[in-house]
């Protein structure tokens, strides 16, 4: 039988994180393209981003037809957060100040790459990335790249750069979610993750 879930955060009630969530009002429109394989992943951080940020849209899918809404975005002020060689650093104030919509690919690197190369429309948008990264605080999921951030951390850092929004609300919610996941792990597995903190 399914365990009851919180109507707000959608975690099971024993793992509710609502007390650890602070809502922030962001000016930049965050458009998350979530690979359908991530939608029900308990370790996915986009659900936290949806709780924290007031201006965020999550589109789930895998094919161009799933992301038709991208055609409505203003090309001159929208950007894709993706670390290509030509990506402009968001630390550049000129890049950040003109941004109204930020597209974020949500998935493992393999899934994100698949979205990037299968969605031709993404090539119409300027690419942006980071010249330097904050420490990755999300230790639950393994990443193939040393410069990886979770989707929540990437969004939080972007909004810190573009709007000076504090990153601490994202870290607080992330820590609460990780602690709940640690509770359900065998002691030896939990200890291994804790050593990496």
TrEMBL record:
<protein>
    <recommendedName>
        <fullName>tRNA-uridine aminocarboxypropyltransferase</fullName>
        <ecNumber>2.5.1.25</ecNumber>
    </recommendedName>
</protein>
<keyword id="KW-0949">S-adenosyl-L-methionine</keyword>
<feature type="domain" description="DTW">
    <location>
        <begin position="2"/>
        <end position="186"/>
    </location>
</feature>
<dbReference type="InterPro" id="IPR005636">
    <property type="entry name" value="DTW"/>
</dbReference>
<dbReference type="InterPro" id="IPR039262">
    <property type="entry name" value="DTWD2/TAPT"/>
</dbReference>
<comment type="similarity">
    <text>Belongs to the TDD superfamily. DTWD2 family.</text>
</comment>
<dbReference type="Pfam" id="PF03942">
    <property type="entry name" value="DTW"/>
</dbReference>
<keyword id="KW-0808">Transferase</keyword>
<keyword id="KW-0819">tRNA processing</keyword>
<dbReference type="GO" id="GO:0016432">
    <property type="term" value="F:tRNA-uridine aminocarboxypropyltransferase activity"/>
</dbReference>
